[in-house]
Amino acid sequence: MTLSPYAPIVGLFALAAFFALFSVASARIAGPRRYNRAKLDAYECGIEPSPQPVGGGRFPIKFYLTAMLFIVFDIEIIFLYPWAVSFDQLGLFGFVEMVMFIGTVFIAYAYVWRRGGLDWD
Amino acid sequence: MTTPAVYLAQDPTLADFGHDPWWISLIKVVAAFVFAVLATLLGVWFERRVVGFMQVRPGPNQVGPFGLLQTLADGLKMAFKEDILPKGADKVVYFFAPTISVICAVTALAVIPFGPMVSMFGHQTPLQVTDVSVAVLVILAASSMGIYGIVLGGWASGSTYPLLGGLRSSAQMISYEVAMGLSIVAVFMTAGTMSTSGIVAAQAGSDRSASLGGFEFFAPGWYAILLLPSFIIYFISAVGETNRAPFDLPEAESELVAGFMTEYSSLKFALFMLAEYVNMVTVSAVATTLFLGGWRAPWPISIWDGANSGWFGLIWFFAKVILLVFVFVWLRGTLPRLRYDQFMRLGWRVLLPINLVWILALAGIRVLQKENSDAVRWGIIGGALLVILLITLAWPDRRKQPPRPLQEQVNARPQGSFPLPPMDLVVPPSPRARRGVAQRQPANVGGGAPDVVDTTSTEEKED
Amino acid sequence: MTIKFPDIDYAAIAPLLIMFGVAALGVLVEAFVPKRARHLTQLVLALAGLVAALVVLVTQAETRVVTAGGAIAVDGPALFLQGSIIVLAIMAVLLIGERSLEKGGPFVAQAAITVGSEDDRRQAARADGATEVYPLATFAIFGMMLFVSANDLLTMFIALEVLSLPLYLMCALARRRRLVSQEAALKYFMLGAYASAFFLFGVALVYGFTASVQAAPGRMAGGVDFATIHAAATQSPANRALLFGGLAMIAIGLLFKAAAAPFHVWTPDVYQGAPTAVTGFMAACTKVAAFGALLRVLYVAFDGARWDFTPVLGAIAILTMLVGAVLSVTQTDLKRLLAYSSIANAGYLLVGVLAGVREGISSTMFYLVAYGFTVIAAFAVVTLVRDADGEATHLSRWAGLGRRSPVFAGVFTFILLAFAGIPLTSGFISKFAVFGAALDGGQTWLVIAGVITSMVLAFPYLRVVVMMWLSEPGESTPTIAVPGALTAAALVIGVAATLVLGVAPAPLLNLSDTAGQFIR
């Protein structure tokens, strides 16, 4: 019986999952339990930990902006991959199209750069 | 091509995969997993020994020969430590986050080619768990899914430092994933495939571009040489992607305690460490495969025909991986940590545009080589010149704006800002400080040579 | 492996490419031109691009071709609608560019600032507005032009997103009444995303339908280009549930953009909250694009299912006319009134679409152009009636305006009469054309409903007219600002077109008649 070439990936995934879950679960059993209220508090420098709002709270909008930029460029990359793989067949036509595409994304990139979207502070 | 065809035949192709009996697949899967765990155990030891050597101290040398078993001992110790579940934690996510990291890190190893076709219990089979036509995408997918482990771990801890660490690492990893994803486009373009074994074979195939300028000397077809910018960018972004020094900002001790793992203890903490080291080995293995010729022997050895056959491949593969891991450790031992804004600027403003321009330049050169019509050639060259001209014209001015006068800055503050102390305020020297200086003075005079005394006093005058 | 490259007729899609190039250039202008020169540069760039696209379009008037790998159809309706989008967009850009009515123009630089915060107050005092509105508008125009010429459902979806996303943003940019503006943008975005999802789901179902019909051996697999859908729909297989489901969902996506009931609920809030120039742009150009796409989908792709969808869409048309007419009677805000009138007009347009004959196509296209001119002129007048808080849009504030400024009240009266469909205005001719086409197509029930709701709809218009002329101006009656050159130009074009199309409609009727033939 032979397997699909994708099957071993799933196999390795399952083995790793088994190992990881086993480790996490066994740590509860193997380790000691010595209750201490302070130990369960959030690790912080002060005496009273700063309260965490429900749901993780808010964080700087810069992270959202980075995430959106990532989406833009990740999609660009996804379009680049098939083009790169069949580059030899696509030839000049593919090259010109890709120059247009990258050029268009570059325009957006220039805008973000100039408007400070890439500054982090 | 120096290698005869009989050895080339050992190059696995995509068609060679998917024919293994299930028990050989199982052996390979288990072997890959054992490799991951062993690589961590030895990798931690290796790192500590090398950093120790660089810092002129022995490093771990007590447990086992050369301290080899130190990591194992640490791991066992961790299993018997208390598993703390912080009060503010999201219990389910907190529990599963480390497993996500580990699973993703290990899964990526499934498509790494460790060697050529070998005979395993009478079966001819490639020394690689499996290969698919989109193998590199599998690796990229696994590495980006791994980010979830870190982000969720940081978020679910219900504590400030881990949250910031997790966010930082997610922003950092996605930023450098863009650079990494772009850097391997050039590899796909040159190799014409995304399967890892195919890329290794393609690098061997491009060995023959040997005679340069009339001289007959050997140029290996490694993409690290052919596509040097891609390799450099890949390696830089690999360091960023694995959160290693000098890009280890998510766990910057001086700012964030231990970043996203601050609240983790016991084996959960160990799993994060495991994932980090497996990731380091994985990106090294990917770099080896994509840029350093994979399991094929480096040049002087490859003259010997047998070097690329059978189980020998493992030796060259591991040698290259260990070399790259050494570079990782070397970087950690040498470089100070970057500031976060500098780090993001490097990723978005330097690596990304260089990458895109390099891809376009490479594509343009390759089209130039293939196209015969002069009009197209001059069109491409003219276009390139035009782009260079435009970029030069539009390049932002480097001159610094003169700083605004202080009074203007003060006036520009919005209504209701905090009151400012007067600008010409001079703080009188505190009496205690003066006393301290006075006490130190005689000690200097008494203990040091006259020139030492002189420097101290001039310094004080300047103050 | 050999790859077959698509043939691209660059001349035929040149207007599209020009608009896209202008939009991309606009982004670069934002990035590199100094702040002081930006507004003028952008305005000139946008207008020049629109005029250039129009000129190229006119030179291509005889083109009838399906190009770009079957993704774009350049035929009579596509060219006619693209041309009308460009002309109406020129008027809208003139309105958008007006800066003399308000210091810094009607747009703010940063739409996301929390309303009422310190930053918000500082922003309100700043003299510079968002010049990003120009690239946004040109991108939207590009999307609309692609929308009416898309020859497969996926290209249509891309065009839908390209035209929608800039509009969502533009809604949030109003300088006055920031909270209402943000609310409008968010509502429009949420509902628009929902409608887009419907559209996409419909595309998937239609793909499944074509694949199931053509699964016979030797046949090509399914597709979402209109020729394939047409071929599959005319085969009339046993199971057409996928076809109907898909068509229904696609129609929901398109009717949402066209503001037809019951997918109209966003319209009053968005029209009221958006900056008035943008509202005019949406009311005219988006309507053209949405009905252009609807025409193409119904006539080119789903022609084989005509007898199945006509009753359903007919019911929607009647509902739309009723909702628009009845609810506009109860409105007290002028922008909301115009919004409900726009909903009712969507109903009349649907009557034309459902005529099912060639006159249906041409009369709908004529209606779109005539209505677009009038509605932009109407919103241009709304921008002029101002007090210290910006535009005074409450109906009661307009009482007595005729005494204070007879010229503008006269102009607005004329516009309202055109909406009401009084003879000698374009409104009469276009309604007449649409109802005539529907009678030809045998849709008498729709015409009856249309005539009745038209009479109902005349009431709110006439009420405004009466209020303007027969009331005494009071303390709170706003002044009418002197329009700047740009608003004046837009207003003159709009009113003149309304009058000319009412008195001498023959040239445009002939043009729309010659253009009213789709290619497949």
From TrEMBL, chain A:
Superkingdom assignment: Bacteria
InterPro entries xref list: NAD(P)H_OxRDtase_bac/plastid, NADH_UbQ/plastoQ_OxRdtase_su3, NDAH_ubi_oxred_su3_sf
Main subcellular location: membrane
Annotated transmembrane regions: 6-30, 63-84, 90-112
Catalytic activity: a quinone + NADH + 5 H(+)(in) = a quinol + NAD(+) + 4 H(+)(out)
Enzyme Commission no: 7.1.1.-
Topology relative to the membrane: Multi-pass membrane protein
Cited Pfam families: Oxidored_q4
Keywords: Cell membrane, Membrane, NAD, Quinone, Translocase, Transmembrane, Transmembrane helix, Transport
Cellular compartment(s): Cell membrane; Membrane
NCBIfam families: PRK07928.1
Family: Belongs to the complex I subunit 3 family.
Function of the molecule: NDH-1 shuttles electrons from NADH, via FMN and iron-sulfur (Fe-S) centers, to quinones in the respiratory chain. The immediate electron acceptor for the enzyme in this species is believed to be a menaquinone. Couples the redox reaction to proton translocation (for every two electrons transferred, four hydrogen ions are translocated across the cytoplasmic membrane), and thus conserves the redox energy in a proton gradient.
HAMAP family for the chain: NDH1_NuoA
Record note on quaternary structure: NDH-1 is composed of 14 different subunits. Subunits NuoA, H, J, K, L, M, N constitute the membrane sector of the complex.
Protein name: NADH-quinone oxidoreductase subunit A
Organism of derivation: Asanoa siamensis
Automatic annotation (TrEMBL), chain B:
Keywords: Cell membrane, Membrane, NAD, Quinone, Translocase, Transmembrane, Transmembrane helix, Ubiquinone
InterPro entries (UniProt xref): NADH_UbQ_OxRdtase_su1/FPO (IPR001694), NADH_UbQ_OxRdtase_su1_CS (IPR018086)
Regions that span the bilayer: 22-46, 92-114, 134-157, 178-202, 222-240, 269-291, 311-331, 351-369, 375-395
Pfam families associated with the record: NADHdh
Principal cellular location given in the protein's record: membrane
Enzyme class: translocase
EC number: 7.1.1.-
Protein location: Cell membrane; Membrane
Membrane topology according to the record: Multi-pass membrane protein
PANTHER family registered for this protein in UniProt: NADH DEHYDROGENASE SUBUNIT 1, NADH-UBIQUINONE OXIDOREDUCTASE CHAIN 1
Function: NDH-1 shuttles electrons from NADH, via FMN and iron-sulfur (Fe-S) centers, to quinones in the respiratory chain. The immediate electron acceptor for the enzyme in this species is believed to be ubiquinone. Couples the redox reaction to proton translocation (for every two electrons transferred, four hydrogen ions are translocated across the cytoplasmic membrane), and thus conserves the redox energy in a proton gradient. This subunit may bind ubiquinone.
Family, as annotated: Belongs to the complex I subunit 1 family.
HAMAP family reported for this sequence: NDH1_NuoH (MF_01350)
Assembly and interaction partners: NDH-1 is composed of 14 different subunits. Subunits NuoA, H, J, K, L, M, N constitute the membrane sector of the complex.
Protein name (database record): NADH-quinone oxidoreductase subunit H
Automatic annotation (TrEMBL), chain C:
InterPro entries assigned to the protein according to its UniProt record, in alphabetical order: NADH-Q_OxRdtase_suN/2 (IPR010096), ND/Mrp_TM (IPR001750)
Bilayer disposition of the protein: Multi-pass membrane protein
Subunit-level organization: NDH-1 is composed of 14 different subunits. Subunits NuoA, H, J, K, L, M, N constitute the membrane sector of the complex.
UniProt keywords, alphabetically: Cell membrane, Membrane, NAD, Quinone, Translocase, Transmembrane, Transmembrane helix, Transport
Family stated for the protein in its record: Belongs to the complex I subunit 2 family.
Catalytic activity: a quinone + NADH + 5 H(+)(in) = a quinol + NAD(+) + 4 H(+)(out)
Natural source organism: Asanoa siamensis
Keyword Nucleotide-binding set for record: no
Main function: NDH-1 shuttles electrons from NADH, via FMN and iron-sulfur (Fe-S) centers, to quinones in the respiratory chain. The immediate electron acceptor for the enzyme in this species is believed to be a menaquinone. Couples the redox reaction to proton translocation (for every two electrons transferred, four hydrogen ions are translocated across the cytoplasmic membrane), and thus conserves the redox energy in a proton gradient.
Compartment(s) where it occurs, according to its Swiss-Prot or TrEMBL record: Cell membrane; Endomembrane system; Membrane
The protein's Enzyme Commission number: 7.1.1.-
Organism ancestry: Bacteria, Bacillati, Actinomycetota, Actinomycetes, Micromonosporales
Transmembrane residue ranges: 12-33, 40-59, 79-97, 131-148, 154-174, 186-210, 242-266, 278-299, 311-330, 337-358, 364-385, 406-425, 445-470, 482-504
Sequence ranges assigned to domain NADH:quinone oxidoreductase/Mrp antiporter transmembrane in this UniProt record: 150-455
Protein's recorded name: NADH-quinone oxidoreductase subunit N
